[in-house]
């Protein structure tokens, strides 16, 4: 594995922030400790210049299997744990592809495949290799090599991943009772990779030429969409409109928008809007014959409200008076970008990449930004524009500079990123910095809505601490293919 130059630079910069990285003798201890972990010190040209020396160390680790993954542990043995080490460890985890199969699972697969007749096993491996494409051709007689390539292989969003397809094929070839073991293994790996267990499903019908269709994961999802716009006269009041959005016919109408009471023209304070939302949800709850899928709540708001804690609004409509973000996934969307046609090309491109991302986490899909002093949002904007397709997600580390959040979000949405995640509370920021990157690596960008919802539900459990991370998260999740009707409210002149 060879890192791209910007990934390499990011790791070196993170190492420079470590306690003793500026001192040559301290770096020597890193190298010696790593040598103990990998049975031999990495070989590279040493330098008294810290940046050059660490660049060489990271490059040498790329050449030794497993060395880069063990480098943070070598640092920990020398320096001990620290927030800087947490950051470095998370970046290494993000840049390295996760191992999809555990050692036990690999052993199970080898044992199950070993029970097949040699011609059947050869045919199984040939089929797996054929899925890898013409550039990757491991020996069909080397099952371990085939598995390694299958783990690294990616596929189009509507195509079953090669590893899952191989395990499905294996389950179909072994005899009972091994078939049940192989089937459970195939289902577990499928869920881990974010695809439905069982045989590959028939692809859904294509959308019309006139517009995009809901993704496979959204075909049963409904949305309660709340749009707020500044009054223009009274800064404490907002125009308010809300819809229930349900999936339509993918071949003709991707989404069906149904207005809920209190239409355009009404102006409310935020605390009044909270009551209106509870009333609207109560009205939906009383529709006993209505078919409403898994509900997500979206707030489309002016940029200055993106950091507002809508997820903590108390509602009673679902049957228990508690925070909205405990009942449903709650996200915010940027009204400013939605109304600016010049921003749409980049937004559309990166949203398409988000959909294609699926369960595979790539280093270039996620950008990390620390809002330290002094902070210039234009620099972030320039970096995010460096690639037309990536990143699709920005994770903000606040570090006590809350006043820069709006500027950083503005840079991200202007660059077209559909996903931004940050922590609103300085006291919880350190836990956010150490926890979110590692979990994001394990769960992927595509699962962020569910990840944040899990944290909010955990925070809402009995005895939850006010400092719980789930009480202080804001997720901007902005899908371009679901935009309010053209006659939606607009700010008065």
UniProtKB/TrEMBL annotation:
<protein>
    <submittedName>
        <fullName>Uncharacterized protein</fullName>
    </submittedName>
</protein>
<dbReference type="InterPro" id="IPR045431">
    <property type="entry name" value="EAD2"/>
</dbReference>
<feature type="domain" description="vWA-MoxR associated protein C-terminal">
    <location>
        <begin position="237"/>
        <end position="479"/>
    </location>
</feature>
<feature type="compositionally biased region" description="Pro residues">
    <location>
        <begin position="196"/>
        <end position="206"/>
    </location>
</feature>
<feature type="domain" description="Effector-associated">
    <location>
        <begin position="12"/>
        <end position="93"/>
    </location>
</feature>
<feature type="domain" description="vWA-MoxR associated protein middle region 0">
    <location>
        <begin position="102"/>
        <end position="198"/>
    </location>
</feature>
<dbReference type="InterPro" id="IPR045555">
    <property type="entry name" value="VMAP-M0"/>
</dbReference>
<dbReference type="InterPro" id="IPR045450">
    <property type="entry name" value="VMAP_C"/>
</dbReference>
<dbReference type="Pfam" id="PF20028">
    <property type="entry name" value="VMAP-C"/>
</dbReference>
<dbReference type="Pfam" id="PF19956">
    <property type="entry name" value="EAD2"/>
</dbReference>
<feature type="region of interest" description="Disordered">
    <location>
        <begin position="194"/>
        <end position="215"/>
    </location>
</feature>
<dbReference type="Pfam" id="PF19916">
    <property type="entry name" value="VMAP-M0"/>
</dbReference>
């Amino acid at each position: 594995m060879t890192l791209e130059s910007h990934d390499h630079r990011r790791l070196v910069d993170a190492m420079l922030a470590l306690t003793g990285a500026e001192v040559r003798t301290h770096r020597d201890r890193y190298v010696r400790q790593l040598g103990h972990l990998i049975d031999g010190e990495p070989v590279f040209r040493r330098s008294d210049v810290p940046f050059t020396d660490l660049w060489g160390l990271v490059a040498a680790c790329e050449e030794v299997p497993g060395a880069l993954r063990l480098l943070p542990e070598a640092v920990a043995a020398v320096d001990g744990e620290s927030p800087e080490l947490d950051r470095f460890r998370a970046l290494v985890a993000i840049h390295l592809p996760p191992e999809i199969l555990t050692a036990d699972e690999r052993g199970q697969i080898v044992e199950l495949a070993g029970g097949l007749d040699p011609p059947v096993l050869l045919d199984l491996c040939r089929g797996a290799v054929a899925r890898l494409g013409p550039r990757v051709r491991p020996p069909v007689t080397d099952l371990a090599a085939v598995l390694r390539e299958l783990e690294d292989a990616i596929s189009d969003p509507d195509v079953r991943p090669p590893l899952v397809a191989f395990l499905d094929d294996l389950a179909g070839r072994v005899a009972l009772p091994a078939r049940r073991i192989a089937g459970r293994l195939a289902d577990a790996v499928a869920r881990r990779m974010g695809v439905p267990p069982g045989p590959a499903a028939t692809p859904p019908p294509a959308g019309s030429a006139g517009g995009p269709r809901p993704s496979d994961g959204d075909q049963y999802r409904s949305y309660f969409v709340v749009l707020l716009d500044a009054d223009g006269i009274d800064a404490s009041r907002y125009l308010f409109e809300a819809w229930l959005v349900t999936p339509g016919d993918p071949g003709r109408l991707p989404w069906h928008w149904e207005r809920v009471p209190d239409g355009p023209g009404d102006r409310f304070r935020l605390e009044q809007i909270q009551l209106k939302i509870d009333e609207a949800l109560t009205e939906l709850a009383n529709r006993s014959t209505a078919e409403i899928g898994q509900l997500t709540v979206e707030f489309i708001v002016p940029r200055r409200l993106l950091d507002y804690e809508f997820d903590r609004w108390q509602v009673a409509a679902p049957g228990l008076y508690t925070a909205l973000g405990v009942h449903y996934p709650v996200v915010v969307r940027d009204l400013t970008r939605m109304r600016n046609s010049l921003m749409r090309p980049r937004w559309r491109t990166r949203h398409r990449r988000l959909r294609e991302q699926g369960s595979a986490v790539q280093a270039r899909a996620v950008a990390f930004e620390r809002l330290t002093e002094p902070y210039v949002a234009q620099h972030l904007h320039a970096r995010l524009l460096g690639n037309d397709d990536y990143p699709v997600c920005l994770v903000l580390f606040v570090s006590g500079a809350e006043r820069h959040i709006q500027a950083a979000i503005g840079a991200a949405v202007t660059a077209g990123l559909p996903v931004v995640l940050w922590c609103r509370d300085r006291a919880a920021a350190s836990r956010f910095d150490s926890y979110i990157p590692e979990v994001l690596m394990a769960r992927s960008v595509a699962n962020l809505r569910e990840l944040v919802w899990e944290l909010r539900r955990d925070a809402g459990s009995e005895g939850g601490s006010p400092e719980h991370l789930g009480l202080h998260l804001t997720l901007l999740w902005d899908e371009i293919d679901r935009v309010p009707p053209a006659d939606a409210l607009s700010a008065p002149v």
